[in-house]
Amino acid sequence: MKNELTFAQLSDPHLSSLENVHWSDLASKRLLGYLSWRKRRRAEHRSEVLESMQRDLRQTAPEHLVITGDLTHISLPDEFRQARDWLESLGTPGDVTVIPGNHDAYVEVPWEKSFAHWQPWMVSDEMPESNRQTPSSETVFPSLRIRGPVAFIGLSSARPSAPFLATGRIGADQLERLGEILELTRRQGLFRVVLLHHPPVPGEEKWRKRLTDADSFCRVIARFGAELVLHGHRHRAVQSRIEIPGTHVPVFGIPSASSSGHQPERAAQYYLYRVGQSDNTWKLDVAVMSHVTGQNRFSVTQESHLEMPRQSA
Ligand SMILES: [Fe+2]
Ligand SMILES: [Fe+2]
Question: Does the N-terminal or the C-terminal CB of the chain have fewer CB atoms within 10 Å?
Answer without folding.
Answer: N
